[in-house]
Amino acid sequence: MAEFVDLRLEEMLPELEEMQRVELFTEQEIKAVVKKRRDFEYKLQKHTKAKEDYLKYIQYEINLLMLVRLRRNRTGFQFKKPEIDHAIGNRINKMFMYATSRFPSDLKIWLSHIEFCKRMRWTSSITRIFVRLLAVKSNEPSLWIMAAKWEFEENGSAANGRGLLLRALRFHPESIQLYTEAFRLELLEADRLRKRRQVLGLSCEPDLPDNETDTDNILDGRVAVLFYNDAKKAVKSAADLLPFLAVAKEFDFTAELQATIFRDMQVEHSEDEITWDTIARHALEKDPNDKEMKLKDRIELCCSTYEEAIERIDTPKMWQLYVDTLFVLGENEIIRPKIRQRIHHVCYRALTNRKLSDQQLIDWTNMLENDQFSGYQLKTVLTEGVKQFPKNATLWTKALKAELEQKEEEPLFQIDTGAADEPEPAADEEATAVSIELPAVFWEAIKALGSTSDSIAVWETAIEHFEALSNQNSKALQTVENLYQKAVNVEPPIGKHFKPLYLNWFATRKGREEAQKLYQSQASLPPLVLDFHYTIIDLELKEAHPNVEFIRKVYEKAAMQFGQKNKEIWLRFIRFELERGDPTRVGNLHHRAKMTLDRTLADDFLVQYTLLQLQA
Fold first, then answer.
1. 3-state SS, residue 299
2. For the chain, what percentages of helix, strand and coil (3-state, to nearest 5) are there?
3. Under DSSP, is residue 511 helix (H, G, I), strand (E, B) or coil?
4. What is the residue-wise DSSP string for 175-198?
5. How confident is the model at residue 431 (pLDDT cuts 50, 70, 90)?
6. Which of 350, 330, 333, 352 is nearest to 341 (CA)?
7. U3 small nucleolar RNA-associated protein 6 homolog C-terminal domain: from which residue to which, for each copy (predicted)?
8. Is the bond leading into 493 cis (omega within 30 degrees of zero)?
9. What residues contact 126, with CB distance under 8 A and at least 6 apart?
């Protein structure tokens, strides 16, 4: 082992001597470099080699190379680069090769090697690395694409990139991703050649001499068409053709090719929802050859295409694509007034046919809340919505809020019945009778959602409504308290969430002493909640003269219930005794905490306890 290490170190002598001679490094620094390299070399000579040893050695050499460059910039000495910089770079390159040979399955090492060679501008090395990488990981199309993109876009070798993609398609003849990338790169090459001819003042039409037919095919995009025609064998749905269409739209000479893709969609996938969605959205795009067609006409053409589609393909997906397009159009402030009513109409039709998704329904109700002249009642829509999506908490919350706030449309006029002289019921009494009673939709929502975290929003909506109402109606306070009491008794996570909130509300409404009584009656009852203890402590500490003995008892109870799994309780207890209580109790608390806490938490507790003592 030692002889191999010594041999490697002897090979490094010329660069080390040069580094010292040109005064980039001092003698002591050279000795430190030799010692560090010797340690790394011995690690690499072990029988069982570790990946971390290679990576640490490589990182050390990269840092050393960066330091050399920094010192060159500082001193202005730019000579002897082959003897120093290139020697270090070659060593890093070799180390990467050793690492990838020893651990070929680790993709990060391969990619780091490629990135290093890019920074060193070793283009030939990158090509060789990709060849080795693809020999090991030929089953990953993304790596073939990465290699081809590099050859096309950075190395400037269209032939190498095309060859890589052709090899990749032999391994993955069904990969749409590979076909799309080949299609894109061929169009990119055609675009590059066309721009070059424009700069030279030459025509871009395919009228080249017979001996330049290959360039003619590339310039005209025929090679890209060949890849596209080959890809049609692997296409299973209209969605597979969308990437080709998106790529073709990036270039201004592919109008005929785009028309071909649209035609193939309509012929081969006429019953696919994506086909109709693509055609309808394409109708919205402005055609530079048709200047007479206005935005209104394009929107009308788009909508008529969707209407024809839902007649032929009456599926939820088709309706949802239609609604999504309308929502996208509605985001434009200029277009929104023109299609607002159409959005409402289509959404209502989709809802009644049970074709609308729950998220689209939520988005539509948001629109209805801000549109008083839509012609559709929000409560009616939400009632139908919760029937179709009984597990959607957002819809239940909106339905409850609409019911509680009585957001019903007022009649446009009222017929005179001749009973104008009859006494009307007192408004305050009628409001009181309605406001303090929980609507049926609340209990329906709780039943549908169960004791899950989703139903928390429903409880909160009801509580917030009646709490706001309590300023005008004192009887609503009892409704709020009843809601809190029911919520606390529900299984977790509902009970856990509302138990500390109930205590805080109770203290605000009924005072300190009543809150303490509530705490003492509920602290040991399930569900046990740590924040319940913290809430009463925080409330007590806000008082001008807090009851120290009561707070201490609260901490004791919290430590008894949660002290084994939570170190924060003990730390807060100790901090309280140091700042507000009796510091002589701290030692006993520290001992109890060590004995109670799990072993996994004890060490961390001791560290934080020490810091707490230093801050005191």
1. helix
2. 75, 0, 25
3. coil
4. -HHHHHHHHHHHHHHHHHHHHHHH
5. very low
6. 330
7. 301-597
8. yes
9. 114, 117, 118, 150, 155
Which tens digits make up the pLDDT trace of 29-86? 999 999 999 999 988 888 888 999 999 999 999 999 999 999 988 888 888 888 888 9
8 Å CB contact between 465 and 404: yes
| Per-residue pLDDT, 300 | 93
Structure tokens at 138: 């030929």
Angular region, 545: left φ>0, alpha ψ -120 to 50, beta rest: beta
- The HSE-up count of residue 382 (CA atoms within 13 Å, CB side) is 26
Residue count of the chain, please give it. 616
**pTM assigned to the model:** 0.79
Q: Taking CA 324 as the corner, what is the angle to CA 319 and CA 329, rounded to the nearest 5 degrees?
A: 130
Is the peptide bond prior to 423 cis by the omega test (within 30 degrees of 0)? no
- All residues at 6 or more sequence positions from 83 whose CB lies less than 8 Å from its CB, including other chains: 14, 15, 18
Residue (of 481, 385, 493) closest to 441 by Cα position: 385
For residue 459, which of 436, 477, 434, 442 has the smallest C-alpha distance? Answer: 442
Question: Which of the residue ranges 141-155, 323-337, 369-383 would you say has the lowest mean pLDDT?
Answer: 369-383
Are 612 and 586 a contacting pair, CB within 8 Å? no
Burial class (CB in 10 A: 0-12, 13-18, 19+), 588: exposed
Token look-up 């993609």 returns 165
The distance of Cα 583 from the centroid of its chain, to the nearest Å, equals: 48
* Burial class for 419, CB neighbours closer than 10 Å (0-12, 13-18, 19+): exposed
Distance CA 178, CA 438 (A): 60
Domain boundaries, the chain: 1-103, 555-615
Provide long-range contacts, Cβ within 8 A and 24+ apart, for 593-598: 593/563, 593/567, 596/559, 596/563, 596/564, 596/570, 597/563, 597/564, 597/567, 597/570, 598/564, 598/565
Tell me the per-residue pLDDT of 446-475, one tens digit each, with 9 for 90 and over: 999 998 999 999 999 999 999 988 877 778
SS3 of residue 528 by DSSP: coil
Q: Which of 479, 450, 451 is nearest to 465 (CA)?
A: 479
The C-alpha atoms of residue 608 and residue 193 are separated, in whole angstroms, by 67
Determine the average pLDDT of the residues in 105-127.
94
DSSP class of residue 293 equals -
Output the CA torsion sign for 574, 575, 576, 578. Answer: positive
Token code pair at residue 318: 């088709």
Burial class, 406, CB count within 10 angstroms (exposed 0-12 / middle 13-18 / buried 19+): exposed
User: What span, in angstroms and rounded, lies between the C-alpha atoms of 238 and 261?
Assistant: 10
End-to-end CA distance of the chain: 57
